[in-house]
Amino acid sequence: MLKLTKGRRLWMKWRMLFIPDGPFGDRARGKLYEPYLKKFGKNFKVGSQAYIFNPNGLEVGDNVYIGFNSYLGQGEIELKDEVLIGNFVSITASNHLMKDGSFRFGGYKAEKITVGKGTWLGAQSSIMAGVTIGSSCLVASGAIVTKSFEDDCVIGGVPATKISTIEKFKEKYGI
Ligand SMILES: CC(C)(COP(=O)(O)OP(=O)(O)OC[C@H]1O[C@@H](n2cnc3c(N)ncnc32)[C@H](O)[C@@H]1OP(=O)(O)O)[C@@H](O)C(=O)NCCC(=O)NCCS
Fold it and tell me: Can you list the domains of the chain with their CATH numbers?
């Protein structure tokens, strides 16, 4: 794994400017990130304007997709095989701490986030530090996920709760 220095970050961002939208561009962005990832599988794709702040802390399985304008921040994040991330999703595995009554220079505490195989994070959802989401889950659009969930859940709301099951979702859509 290559360490992401300030210079390399700048170089990568500059190269990103010239990568087009669409499946070819998504794969090209994935390829650009790969040398900096802690671990990666095949066919990693990253939508345009998505930003991975700390690729050195990110592990991705096979066929992971990160949608347009999503943000993966500080801390350790693991995305298992076939995780599908929608648009404007935020995954940040750390919280600021307080010093002298202020959060500005209080440092931060990181806690790993894990997203299970085949899970879909809907548009504009946010995943908080320390959360583990099971496999085959659906995180509904706009959810703020503050605690962990088992496999096969439909999760939604603020703060997110289990709103349905994947079994019901499959019945509804005849899958
Ligand atoms: C979750 C989703 C798929 C709908 O799933 P569904 O199983 O068809 O859900 P239903 O419409 O039957 O709703 C089931 C319950 O969840 C609630 N619900 C649905 N979407 C919700 C949301 N985004 N937030 C909170 N609650 C939600 C419904 O109100 C319903 O509640 P009720 O049982 O009390 O009436 C859809 O709302 C969603 O969020 N899709 C994501 C779209 C997206 O992000 N697209 C970007 C492309 S990557």
Answer: 6-173 (2.160.10.10)
